[in-house]
Amino acid sequence: MRVGLVGCGYWGRNILRDLKALGCEVDVADPGSAYPIAGARRLVADLAELADDLDGYVVATPAPTHAEVITALAARGKPIFCEKPLTTDAASARTLANTFGGQLFVMHKWAYHGGVQALAALAQDGELGPVQGVFTRRLQWGKPAAKADAVWELAVHDLTIIQAILGQLPPVVAARAVLRGDEMEGIVATLGRLPFAHLEVGAHWPGTERKVRVAFRDGLAMLDDPLADHIAVVRGAAPAGERHEPETLERRPIDTEWPLIKELRVFVKHLGGGPPPPTDAHAGAEIVAALQSLRQAAGAAR
């Protein structure tokens, strides 16, 4: 397959690496990356210079440029895989999804994580009863994207996880932001009632935490490390009047392949006639709308 990659910066170089590992020839359009670009079949400064023989496109430019880039590429009639978030406002995301829905997909890598997929399977099969709540925590020190605050850059992942487990995103009930000047450095929010979701993200937290816990009627399931090779499952409720770790904690193996190469493999297979990626533009637009609602509930202008 021949793929056009638009944008090859901090994350785009990882996309280039994995597309090459999947056997693709990759043409890169980037006006001047700060990172080395090695392995491209051809390097051009503008997407208009990309060759006409490409089978599809991956967009890895800054989020505020996505709508313009997607609109320009869509005229070529080939599938497009866009990095998250789809855009930075709900109206443009809906327009793109409604206009290019069958052609456009979003790279929400956490939907492809083996642990998240295992938690979603538990929610769907009812083994532990219905879901009561989903708890996510994503804390770190700093963020790579200078043009996006912590909510746009981090909460998008947690909303993806919640969407994958619950099958939809509940409405925002409450949100509180951690601010530095006018910029959000973190947010704590609750979505829905039953099932509900509680998320906490922050970019001003020494160390790194990535946790997903799902409370079911008849037990708990947890992914407490994104690099873990298992999820943990606990059945029943904690006994009253006691305080100790559960005696029966089951560790279930999960797929540990990196989510980025998994989602790119799905897209490449689609270019060859396979099924489309499950993370379509409408799901991406739903996440953008939720991000905007979170920010507004926390007092941001947009």
UniProtKB/TrEMBL annotation:
| InterPro entries cross-referenced by the UniProt entry | Gfo/Idh/MocA-like_OxRdtase_N, Gfo/Idh/MocA_Oxidoreductases, NAD(P)-bd_dom_sf
Q: Where is the Gfo/Idh/MocA-like oxidoreductase N-terminal domain?
A: 1-99
Write one Gene Ontology MF term. nucleotide binding
**Signal sequence coordinates:** none
Q: What is this protein called?
A: Gfo/Idh/MocA family oxidoreductase
